[in-house]
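[step 3/7] fold_predict: job queued, chain A
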Amino acid sequence: MSVKKIIAKCVCLLVIAGFFSGCKLNSKQLLAKRIKHMQEASGNPVTIEEIKAAINRYDSEVTEVQQKNAKIGLWYKILGTRYLDKKCMEKL
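[step 4/7] structure written:
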């Protein structure tokens, strides 16, 4: 195999790896996008009634996120208990 082919393969692999590594948003980016979306959707409330309406609009969404986080916490607790039962301390 020639040196040019090896270099070309390495460059292709690096480009593909770079493409896939930049595709996933982390949790802070997702949170920022959600906040921005909520602000854009609610406009710019000025009066007390508009502010209350904006709060009520997103109150159910906040409650839903809190419930999902509680479920995730429960699953992590179960996972941790299973690891302790099997004495898999290195995986924690």
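[step 5/7] annotate
The mean pLDDT is 76.
The chain is about 80% helix and 0% strand.
exit 0
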